[in-house]
UniProtKB/TrEMBL annotation:
One of its GO terms (molecular function) is GTP binding. It comes from Nepenthes gracilis. Residues 1-32 are annotated as: Disordered. Keywords: Nucleotide-binding. This is Ras-related protein RHN1. NCBIfam families: small_GTP. It holds the Pfam family Ras.
């Protein structure tokens, strides 16, 4: 099957083998770490550490200054071509392609957000929007702490599909799941079919957080993941004590400081 993408470019045909394989291997390519302010204005004191190979690698500017360490599974769902992969690639690698290939099965990414109050490691499952992969979805949203349901603001059909995903998550997903509704491609305002208020009202009625985003220019992309991290951090119980406690004790009439296991 061939999909048209971007400026009329064709997506690559998908073989039966890749369909049967279902899931794309977690990326093993890159082991670099990049730290940058989430946004120069609003979160100037926060840093994003990009981590690959699922191995946290900390640099001094991305150190653990929060008291909670949270690992959270986050799943992206939505109609094909709405920009799910583009949003994740923008968040994890700071990249955007006009000719993004359709996802086969699902793709896996990790990313760490260091907030003042917590460090949140996201295990991100980016699902394929093509209908033939729909039956795989429960595997990815099962046990997820957060779900991002994406539609394309130039397609009413994709908004209707997003509503179906929300209903499915409400029926079958984790009841505590933090859900977001995201109207992507907000740069294509002249072709808009779903008004901002329509998305926003639906989100309000269903207790979802709402964003309009642009994977293309990065607008609201870090913000939406930051919002998820903040909410999950607020919900999570404080981490138990770690490392060593310093206590003072009087010995032979003298005051000393010593360490003992926490
Ligand atoms: N103009 C514009 N195009 C975008 C934006 N985000 C994504 N696109 C384009 O939309 C197309 C589809 O993007 P993908 O990220 O592959 O969409 P997807 O939801 O992952 O699609 P599936 O993997 O098939 O489910 C690509 O050609 C992207 O370049 C955006 O914010 N603005
Ligand atoms: Mg994709």
């Amino acid at each position: 099957m061939v999909r048209r993408r971007g400026n009329g470019m064709k997506g690559s045909p998908q073989s039966e083998k890749s369909l049967l394989n279902g899931m794309r291997e977690p990326s093993k390519s890159n082991s670099t770490i990049t730290c940058r302010p989430v946004s120069p204005v609003s979160y100037f004191s926060q840093f994003v550490c990009a981590i690959h190979n699922s191995k946290p690698v900390w640099s001094s500017s991305c150190s653990l200054f929060g008291s909670k360490n949270i690992q959270a599974k986050l799943v992206l769902l939505g109609e094909m071509g709405t920009g799910k992969t583009s949003l994740v690639l923008r968040f994890v690698k700071g990249l955007f392609s006009d000719y993004q290939e359709p996802t086969i099965g699902a793709a896996f990414f990790t990313q760490v957000l260091s907030l003042n109050e917590a460090t949140v490691k996201f295990d991100i499952w980016d699902t394929a929007g093509q209908e033939r992969y729909h039956s795989l979805a429960p595997m990815y949203y099962r046990g997820a702490a957060a779900a991002v349901v994406v539609y394309d603001i130039t397609s009413m059909e994709s908004f209707e599909k997003a509503k179906k995903w929300v209903e499915e998550l409400q029926r079958q997903g984790n009841p505590d799941m933090f859900m977001m509704l995201v109207g992507n491609k907000a740069d294509l305002d002249t072709k808009r079919k779903v008004e901002n208020e329509v998305g926003e009202n639906y989100a309000k009625e269903n207790g979802l957080h709402f964003f309009e985003s642009l994977a293309k220019t990065a607008q609201n992309v870090n913000e939406l993941f930051y919002e998820a991290a903040k909410t999950l951090a607020a919900k999570a119980p404080p981490s138990g004590p770690s490392g060593m406690k310093l206590q003072s004790r009087t010995q032979d009439g003298r005051r000393t400081l010593f360490c003992c296991p926490g």
